[in-house]
Amino acid sequence: MKRTIIITGGAGFIGSHVVRLFVNKYPEYKIINLDKLTYAGNLANLKDVEDKPNYKFVKMDICDFEGVYKLMQDEHVDGVIHLAAESHVDRSIKDPFTFAQTNVMGTLSLLQSAKLYWESLPEKWEGKRFYHISTDEVYGALELTHPQGIEPPFSTKASSGKHHLAYGDKFFTEDLKYLPHSPYSAAKAASDHFVRAFHDTYGLPTVVTNCSNNYGPYQFPEKLIPLFINNIRHRKPLPVYGKGENVRDWLYVEDHARAIDLIFHEGKIAETYNIGGFNEWKNIDLIKVLINTVDRLLGRGEGEDLNLITYVTDRAGHDMRYAIDSTKLQKELGWEPSLQFEEGIEKTVRWYLDNQEWMDNVTSGDYQKYYEEMYKGR
Ligand code: NAD
Ligand code: DAU
Predict the structure, then answer these.
(1) What is the mean pLDDT of residues 92-104?
(2) Is 270 within the bounds of a domain?
(3) Which one from 137, 174, 254, 319 is the annotated catalytic residue?
(4) Domain limits at 262?
(5) Is 202 assigned a catalytic role?
């Protein structure tokens, strides 16, 4: 079956992995990467698929309702996988307006375009799907707890029946009330509500997923893992917020992309699925793993660079702990993360060390010229 799918934010970190997966796995689909190319968009992330016949790049702002609506009509789009967003919490603290504009108004513009176009077709919603990618941060923050006096991390059993290490006895499940704290997560929460409202009010065939922290190749080096790998390599200070005690739940980005593929094709309309690998890490412990891994791979004495750790003022409103319960996805659709964290971190550190040119292009700003050069005359 042929399909035409718009993937928004395909030039970003997660979006580029989703585009690559869909372009390679589904040669019969037409994949349109719709991206504004903000500072976070980098077409060099997609060098290996840009000449494939089933791939097309369109430089467009999701807030451009007229443009998006026309693109849907011209291309006979029957699926939307929506990742485009302003995604960095620290930036949202400095500039909340951009986050409301892109994450809320941009999502609304896509929803309205899809609704108007699909409603106008004889078959209406049949075979159509609007898939909105969201974050675990909409649920707010969990506490670090010590059940029966046991120091975290302690071994616990998820409702899936599997044991894993945790820093608290509560987890984010799909039925939790939204309690976002940062302007970023507040804007994502608002966009999630709009998506569900479009299903409930108009019948738009929607699905929403909330995923935990992703890591892997092509992540913009403002986020903890790529920033710290690059700093360790260049022996620059590592700015650890607060005491480094906050806990994040890490998932390898290709496992997220695989979940998106599965849910786009087999997830139930109007459902929400949490995505995560039951993989909690205290920031400071994760940072030590990064230092040891970079040092070892560069042939330095392991842990030689621990002195780069520099405690700095905490992030305002810093959420203490995120921990996703992805039992529903695992039980209903059979998804499992494919990589152990140690394996994923080793792969990731190797990738950044082997791709210093990619990193240098991003840190120098040269990556923004890539579009002009690649797409001039097309
Ligand atoms: P990113 O910042 O790396 O990429 C965002 C992409 O969106 C960029 O290519 C950018 O150019 C594009 N974009 C931004 N504003 C746009 C606009 N107005 N119009 C069109 N394109 C625009 O983000 P990411 O980390 O890959 O996250 C992708 C999505 O996944 C986001 O919706 C984010 O909320 C969600 N998410 C991220 C994580 C994570 O750990 N990174 C975890 C869970 C969910
Ligand atoms: O949970 C999913 C979310 O994960 C996504 O929705 C966001 O788009 C994504 O950016 C990420 O948010 P975080 O704020 O958790 O990621 P970040 O990499 O910015 O920070 C991870 C942790 O490390 C967090 O506790 C803050 C801390 N940190 C971060 C930076 C950049 C530091 O201590 N120092 C730093 O310099």
Answers:
(1) 98
(2) yes
(3) 137
(4) 3-218+248-279+318-340
(5) no
- Check residues 159 and 297 and name the one with the higher pLDDT: 297
Q: Cα–Cα distance between 20 and 6 in angstroms, integer?
A: 13
Instruction: Say if CB 328 and CB 274 are below 8 A apart.
Output: yes
In this structure, which ligand is nearest to the CA of 317?
Answer: 2
Please check whether residue 23 lies inside any domain of the structure: yes
The pLDDT of residue 1 is 54
Q: Is the CB–ligand 2 distance for residue 137 below 6 Å?
A: yes
Does residue 183 surpass a pLDDT of 70? yes
Section 3-25 average pLDDT: 98
DSSP string, 128-170: -EEEEEEEGGGG--BPP--GGGPPSSEEEE-TTS-EEEESSS-
Q: Which domain CATH number covers 72?
A: 3.40.50.720
Calculate mean pLDDT across residues 76-102: 98
Angle at 349 between CA 345 and CA 354, to 5 degrees: 145
Cβ(305) to ligand 1 under 6 A? no
Q: Where are the beta strands (DSSP E) in the chain?
A: 4-8, 30-35, 55-59, 79-82, 129-135, 154-157, 163-166, 206-211, 213-215, 238-241, 247-252, 272-275, 280-282, 309-312
- Distance, CA of 163 to CA of 154 (rounded, Å): 10
pLDDT (tens digit per residue) in 195-205: 999 999 999 99
Evaluate if residue 270 carries a pLDDT over 80.
yes
Task: Tell whether 240 is covered by a domain.
Answer: no
Q: From ligand 2's centre to the CA of 238, what distance in Å?
A: 14
Q: How confident is the model at residue 188 (pLDDT cuts 50, 70, 90)?
A: very high
- For residue 29, being part of any structural domain is answered with yes
Average pLDDT over residues 25-48: 97
Number of domains in the chain: 1
| Chain center to CA of 190 | 17
